[in-house]
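Z., the sequence and structure:
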Amino acid sequence: MLQYPKKSHRKHVRTPKHSVMLAELFGIIMGDGSIWNTHQFKISLNSTSDYNYALYIETLIKKLFDVDTGFMARKKEKTLVLSVSSTTIIEYLLKNGLVFGNKIKNQIDIPTWIKRNKYYSRAVVRGLTDTDGCLYLHNHEIKGKKYCNLGYCFVSYSLPLLYSMIEILNNNKIKYKIENNKKIYIYNAKEITKYLHVFDSSNERIKNIYFNWLKNKKYNKMLIYDKSNILIN
C-alpha cells in the first residue's frame, strides 16, 4: 500500500493510455529498471555504450508522463542511472502490471494488456532486448578460414517472462534456441534480420553491431534490415 495516496502536494503528471510507447517503456523497466519504493523508479544503463539510448528513454518518459528525468553517473561502475520521482506514476505502473522489489524473486511477467496486443507485444520485446538482450559477433576459424557470425541473446531468470518472450517470438515466426531455461539465442543471420524488421531496436548499440557486421558481408538474396526499418533486397 502506498503511503499518503491522496496528498495534495503531488506534482502534476500525465497518466497515458495504453500504447506502443508505454509498452516499450514497460519492457525497458522490466529489463534494466527497478521500483524499490513508493515514489520513484530507476533505470540503470552503461554510461558509455548506452548514453544515446538514455537520451531516447528520457524523451520517451517525457512524452508519456510529461515529467523530467534525473541523471546520475557512477563513474567507477561506468553506470548511468535514470530516475523518475512521482508517487502518481508509481501507482500507475503498479496498477498496470509492474511490481515492487526483486524482479527475479517476484518472477515478473509481461502484463496481460501488452501480451494481448500484437503491436504492444512487439514493443515490449524491443524494450526488453534493448536493455537485457544483445547482438554480438562470434569470430571462429574452420579449416584455416576465418568467419564472423552474428548472434542474438536474451537472458532472464524469471521463467514467466522468458516464456512470454518465447510466445511472442513464436507468434511472429522467429526461430530461436533456448539454453538452460534462462537464455534465448538466435544464431541464423537471416532470422536476426527478420527479428530486427519485426521488432526493431531503439538502441544504437544494438543497431550498430548489425550494420558493422553487414559491411563485411555480401548477400544477393538475403533480406537486409536497413536504417529506415525497411526490408530491401
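The two ends are 55 Å apart (CA to CA). The domain at 20-130 is CATH 3.10.28.10 (Endonuclease I-creI).

Let me know what you think.
H.
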